[in-house]
Specification:
Strand content: under 5%
Shape: globular
Low-confidence stretches: none
Mean pLDDT: 94
Helix content: over 70%
Radius of gyration: 16 Å
Number of strands: 0
Number of helices: 9
C-alpha cells in the first residue's frame, strides 16, 4: 500500500503552488500554455537554441520547475497520489503532452538523455498518471492539428 499523504506533503504542495505564482513564472507558464505549440522537435529546439531569448528563459524556467517538482515525487519526498491530482500537477501533464511526441528526438538532438526524465517518470509511472497523460495528449493533439490547419 502506498504511503498516505501527510501534513508535510500538503506543505510541499502549497509551497509549489506559491512558487508558481511568482510574476516571472506566471509569464513563463502563460507563454508555454498559450503561445508555445511546437509541431516538431525542431520547433522545440529553436527555442532551446535561441539563448538568451526571453522564450528560451521561459522554456527553461517552466521545464526546470516541473522537473524539480516531479523529482520530489521520484525521490519519495512528496506523496505521488497527492501530487498527480489535477489541481496540483494538471499543468505539468499539459506541458509534458506538448513535448512528449518529440521527446526521443529532442533528447537525441540535445545530447541529453535526462531531459524531462523526472516529469516523464511521474507522468507515466502509474496507471492513473498514464490515463491522465493519454487524455491530455488527445486534447493537445487536437489543438496542435487545429493550429497547423489554421497556418495553411
Amino acid at each position: 500500500m502506498a504511503k498516505k499523504a501527510n501534513a508535510n506533503d500538503a506543505q510541499i504542495v502549497l509551497k509549489l503552488y506559491e512558487l508558481r505564482r511568482e510574476e516571472e513564472m506566471r509569464k513563463a507558464r502563460n507563454w508555454f500554455l498559450v503561445e508555445f505549440w511546437p509541431q516538431s522537435a525542431d520547433d522545440f529546439l529553436k527555442v532551446v537554441n535561441a539563448f538568451p531569448s526571453q522564450e528560451n528563459s521561459w522554456l527553461r524556467q517552466v521545464q526546470s520547475y516541473w522537473d524539480m517538482a516531479a523529482s520530489l515525487v521520484v525521490q519519495g519526498a512528496l506523496n505521488e497520489d497527492l501530487f498527480i491530482q489535477p489541481g496540483n500537477s494538471g499543468e505539468m501533464f499539459f506541458f509534458f503532452a506538448k513535448v512528449h511526441p518529440f521527446l526521443k528526438e529532442i533528447r537525441q538532438k540535445m545530447g541529453n538523455p535526462d531531459a524531462w526524465a523526472n516529469i516523464e517518470q511521474v507522468a507515466t509511472g502509474s496507471k492513473l498518471a498514464r490515463k491522465r497523460l493519454d487524455r491530455v495528449s488527445a486534447n493537445v493533439d487536437k489543438r496542435r492539428a487545429a493550429l497547423a490547419k489554421g497556418k495553411k
